[in-house]
Give the backbone structure.
Amino acid sequence: MKFNSERFAQMLRLRQYEKRLNVTAAAKEIGISKATLSRLNREIGLPDVYTYFLCCKWLERDMIAFFNGNRI
């Protein structure tokens, strides 16, 4: 299975938009740094496991959801 960073970034941006949060406020709500969220939004690199866990929790998605072969 391959991680779908494009879909992950899309979901992060969509949730931020839905909650009307800027990057700083969203990062604080998730529990990660503004720089990390900005990097994830732009699909630069992969999140570490703990960051991925926090983001999935914030997105209310199972951690397996962003791997190819799984529907969201």
User: Anything to note?
Assistant: The radius of gyration is 11 Å.
